[in-house]
# Entry
Amino acid sequence: MGVLVNRIIVILLRLFLKVPAYLCGIRRRGRQKNYSVENAYAYIKKITKDVNRVGRIKVEAYGEENIPKENGFVFFPNHQGLFDGLVFLDSCSAPFSFIIKKEVSNVIVIKQVLKALRSIPIDRGDIRQSMQVINQVAEEVKKGRNFLIFPEGTRSKQGNKLLDFKSGAFKSAVKAKCPIVPCALIDSFKPFDESSVKPVTVKLFYLPPLYYKEYMGMKTVEIAALVKRRIEETIAEQETA
# Structure
């Protein structure tokens, strides 16, 4: 925990007077049904930009034109660090919800944010619950909701290197026959997983989506390998640029 608190402490100190109001606003949007996901997303996006500003974190997003114009799609990014979700909340214009492992969904503040965004926790140790989530997400996507799933299942803890992508992460998208949007995160581990509080830049590349006609007939393990390869190629290109 020691390497995690430095920048977070700086952020909390600089936003000291705003934090209580922010937390109340997030809780209210999670508890009251009259708040839409769009409203909650806009509110949390505003807070995220404030957090990044005082934390001296710059988010550079590329390829935003690749985000489908019609809702009902799933983002699949690599998973580098605790800051990953904030990169998307800062840069993405399309409201989305997270599919996140159950353990993280019980962490204070994160829990309230996830609830406000109508995110769905998944218990990877419970096969029945996992299947229920897969089916639920597929149905929600068909209705026009957008989701973000980390196919590695956990932070890589290897900088810009990727872990293997779990094929099961793609089952909801396949069932929904929706666009799959690969996303490449670069240096997203630096803000909250390193002890430095120096200014840092995180990059996010929204890659061209895979539409159902492109992946129909493919096994989920093949889709996972394809998405991973595209992300790795993007990171490699940026590291050699």
The CA atoms of residues 30 and 200 lie 31 Å apart. The chain has a mean pLDDT of 94. Strands lie at 57-62, 74-77, 97-101, 120-122, 147-149, 180-186, 200-206. The longest helix spans residues 220-240.
